[in-house]
């Protein structure tokens, strides 16, 4: 019995060991203790610093942070889900170093998918390698898009589990669907999940049609019932994150309009169309799936001394040209996108096998995957195929919540790779007539190899090779405007020939097998070697040993400057602004301070509107003042006029990291009293009035809050309000006044969780000055407390606990049935 079990699991154990070896061989720097850090990883460390520090020293969890954009929930930054049992599964997998962990997830995930499609385990290893080493999978790891990488990895086994539920094993498929859906949702990249749902919709439609055709509608409905239950459990385990994010999303740039029309950038529902389609793949750029440098590769790339640029530098007498070429990056990309970290390359071999699949894979599979591939390819073109993009933005639910439409190539690449490996499955199937393989193989090689050959011979068919970035080269560097297009053409020609070679080699392998010159097992090994030879060098262009650093160097990336150290000596509560960075696209100041700026893809819509309408203007006004004054004292008038920045309590401004920061004596403080409150009829009027008032003395409030406003305000020169306690989830103020007052708090208004209390009793508060909190206060001496206690978090935790228990019961039930069946089988034997 033990020998039988070992024999059964031997291929899977071998696959795991192969994946471990491949992953560590690719990422050899981790063996030396080095680490990879991408831009987004560093940004996350900055934006999450306050939350991480608080969580490490407190029993509760920070659900709000003041470290960015004046304050925002931590739901999309550093969210804890205490009742999601899958966190323990993830902890086990994370025993590997980060980069190895991502690659292992890619490999194992696609391997599980192929097993669900009954692909031979040894061939499934080849397929897993082909999927995992697609260039995009490494590009996103290099830049730190970690949640995206993890979700892509779980996408494959999730789809495989749903397929298994429809086709074969109802209970096992349902349990695996719940697990992998739960893990995919937990990874927290909604856009990739959205594309996964699109793939599954196509699968469900195909299964429905064939169930009608084959009169198996009852089986289909049973499968749907099991999948719905599995989805409820998988989603339910993540209810904490999903419910809080749902609440938050309605108030973000991706939510509904606030009714503001004076700001053209914010008047629409969802994201702005230009913003959504900014990163649109060119229609001809789709050729990068076959020829990686079809459009030059990445925006910044290196050239060799033998390139046209290198030769020209040699001709001009530049010293050590080889060193110059190695240490400098050139704008090699010349496609339609504003910039790119690299192309989406899925492999010449995969492209060849995909075309072959059109001839030999069963229709039921093709009619599921081919329409999905076609649709997602066209959607990736975005503004270059606007009629379809408009249709989806306007009519398809949630599509207008996502940007970077080129990301749909993840779905297309998945489908193409799956069909490619299913073609290999048919090639090596015992029922396949080997002689009948030769014709479709030759046709497929002729189509794909012919395309590569055409561009190798006539690269100019792809375009002019001129990039808008070339215009920057003037004077002594003007020659680059002539040499760079030549180098881009050479890159295309070289990669086209490279792809042609791999197409011919893979076609040759199948031909040798069909002619009985190769055994299947040897062919598997040779295909694995060929796929690695095809994919790894391209992946290495974008993620290689140079991306890794010693841990101590990474830790030193975020070090306090002279200005930071001076500000950190001030232990009061305030906000700052760092003018030495891109204020609203850089999170580094948030590592040390409570920041007016920051970096996040889901800012509160009201804050973004304030940036568009006032903050950008006030910053421009402030920066222009620097060029006119001779000392900081002369900035007094300008600082006093910064009504919006002052109401956000901007006490410090860093204008030179190695100099003392500018101290702003006109910041409004943590809270203050106003003598007059004006009401606005709508968002436009509220925004307009905000630009007219002095926020130190007046406030503007929407008419919907009119019933809460005090009937009369009386001055009291001795009135006092001060912040006495600060924690991310709790703020306390001492208040003293002989008359009724209206206090404005320099805190972001977010009523989906922030509650106000006086004497332990909840009291109402209002939104003032478009996005701050304000509260009418009766005369007296007492404490005011704000607590962040979102119901979505507590309700989500309860649902997650119930769902986790249901999964455990499901696993226990499945285990019991397996044990019972094996016992009955043993008794019968």
TrEMBL record:
Transmembrane segments: 12-31, 99-117, 122-143, 149-166, 171-187, 193-212, 224-246, 342-361, 368-387, 407-425, 437-458, 496-514, 521-539, 799-817
UniProt xrefs under InterPro entries: Uncharacterised_YfhO (IPR018580)
Domain of life: Bacteria
Keyword Iron found: no
Keywords attached to this entry: Membrane, Transmembrane, Transmembrane helix
Pfam families in alphabetical order: YfhO (PF09586)
Keyword field contains Signal: no
PANTHER family: INTEGRAL MEMBRANE PROTEIN (PTHR38454:SF1), INTEGRAL MEMBRANE PROTEIN-RELATED (PTHR38454)
Name used for this protein in its record: Bacterial membrane protein YfhO
Protein's organism: Paludibacter propionicigenes (strain DSM 17365 / JCM 13257 / WB4)
Lineage: Bacteria, Pseudomonadati, Bacteroidota, Bacteroidia, Bacteroidales
């Amino acid at each position: 019995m033990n020998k039988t079990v070992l024999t059964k699991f031997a291929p899977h154990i071998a696959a795991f060991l192969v994946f471990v070896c491949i992953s560590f061989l690719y990422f050899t720097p981790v063996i030396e203790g080095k680490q990879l850090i991408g831009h987004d990883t560093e940004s996350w460390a900055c934006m999450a610093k306050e939350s991480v520090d608080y969580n490490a020293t407190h029993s509760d969890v920070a659900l709000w942070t003041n470290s960015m954009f004046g304050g925002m929930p931590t739901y999309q930054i550093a969210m804890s889900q205490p009742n999601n049992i899958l966190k323990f599964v993830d902890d086990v997998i994370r025993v590997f170093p980060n980069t190895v962990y991502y690659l292992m997830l890619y490999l194992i995930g696609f391997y599980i998918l192929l097993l669900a499609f009954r692909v031979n385990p040894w061939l499934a290893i080849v397929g897993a390698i082909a999927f995992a080493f697609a260039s995009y999978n490494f590009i996103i790891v290099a830049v730190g898009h970690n949640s995206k990488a993890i979700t892509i990895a779980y996408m494959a086994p999730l789809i495989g589990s749903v397929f298994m539920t429809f086709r074969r094993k109802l209970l096992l498929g349902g349990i695996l669907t719940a697990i992998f859906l739960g893990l995919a949702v937990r990874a927290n990249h909604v856009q990739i999940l959205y594309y996964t749902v699109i793939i599954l919709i196509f699968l469900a439609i195909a299964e429905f049609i064939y169930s009608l055709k084959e009169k198996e509608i009852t089986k289909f409905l049973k499968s749907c019932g099991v999948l719905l239950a599995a989805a409820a459990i998988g989603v339910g385990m993540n209810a904490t994150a999903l419910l809080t994010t749902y609440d938050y999303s309605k108030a973000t740039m991706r939510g509904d309009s606030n009714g503001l029309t004076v700001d053209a950038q914010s008047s629409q529902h969802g994201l702005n169309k230009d913003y959504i389609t900014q990163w649109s793949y060119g229609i001809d750029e789709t050729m990068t799936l076959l020829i990686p440098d079809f459009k030059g590769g990445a925006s910044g790339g290196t050239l060799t001394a033998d390139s046209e640029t290198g030769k020209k530098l040699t001709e001009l007498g530049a010293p050590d040209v080889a060193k110059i070429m190695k240490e400098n990056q050139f704008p090699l990309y010349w496609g339609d996108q504003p910039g790119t970290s690299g192309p989406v390359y899925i492999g010449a071999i995969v492209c060849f096998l995909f075309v072959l699949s059109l001839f030999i894979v069963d229709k039921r599979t093709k009619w599921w995957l081919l329409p999905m591939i076609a649709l997602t390819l066209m959607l990736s073109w975005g503004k270059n195929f606007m009629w379809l993009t408009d249709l989806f933005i306007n009519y398809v639910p949630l599509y207008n919540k996502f940007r970077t439409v080129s990301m749909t190539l993840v779905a297309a690449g998945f489908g193409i790779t799956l069909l490619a490996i299913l073609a290999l499955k048919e090639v090596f199937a015992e029922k396949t007539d080997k002689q009948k393989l030769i014709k479709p193989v030759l046709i497929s090689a002729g189509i794909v190899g012919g395309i590569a050959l055409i561009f190798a011979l006539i690269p100019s068919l792809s375009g002019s090779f001129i990039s808008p970035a070339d215009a920057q080269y003037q004077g002594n560097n003007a020659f680059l405007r002539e040499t760079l297009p030549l180098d881009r053409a050479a890159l295309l020609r070289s990669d086209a020939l490279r792809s042609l070679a791999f197409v011919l080699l893979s076609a040759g392998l199948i031909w040798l097998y069909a002619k009985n010159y190769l055994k299947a097992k040897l062919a598997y090994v040779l295909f694995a070697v060929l796929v690695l030879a095809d994919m790894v060098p391209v992946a290495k262009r974008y993620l290689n040993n140079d991306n890794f650093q010693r841990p101590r160097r990474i830790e030193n990336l975020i070090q306090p400057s002279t200005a930071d150290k001076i500000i950190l000596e001030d232990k009061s509560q305030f906000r700052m602004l760092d003018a030495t960075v891109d204020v609203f696209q850089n999170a580094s100041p948030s590592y040390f301070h409570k920041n007016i700026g920051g970096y996040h893809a889901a800012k509160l819509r009201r804050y973004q509107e304030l940036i568009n309408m006032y903050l950008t203007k006030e910053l421009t006004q402030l920066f222009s003042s620097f060029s006119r004054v001779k000392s900081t004292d002369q900035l007094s008038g300008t600082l006093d006029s910064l009504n919006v920045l002052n109401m956000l309590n901007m006490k410090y401004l860093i204008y030179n990291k190695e100099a003392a920061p500018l101290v702003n004596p006109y910041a409004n403080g943590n809270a203050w009293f106003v003598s007059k409150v004006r009401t606005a009829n709508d968002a436009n009027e509220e925004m307009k009035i905000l630009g007219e008032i002095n926020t130190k003395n007046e406030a503007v409030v929407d008419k919907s809050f009119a019933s809460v406003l005090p009937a009369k305000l009386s001055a009291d020169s001795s009135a006092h309000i001060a912040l006495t306690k600060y924690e991310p989830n709790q703020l306390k103020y001492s208040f003293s006044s002989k008359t009724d007052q209206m206090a404005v708090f320099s805190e972001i208004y977010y009523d989906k969780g922030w509650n106000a209390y006086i004497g332990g009793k909840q009291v109402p508060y209002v939104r003032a000055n478009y996005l701050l909190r304000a509260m009418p206060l009766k005369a007296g001496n007492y404490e005011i407390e704000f607590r962040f206690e979102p119901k979505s978090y507590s309700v989500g935790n309860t649902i997650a606990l119930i769902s986790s228990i249901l999964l455990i019961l499901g696993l226990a039930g499945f285990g019991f049935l397996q044990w019972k069946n094996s016992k009955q089988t043993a008794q019968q034997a």
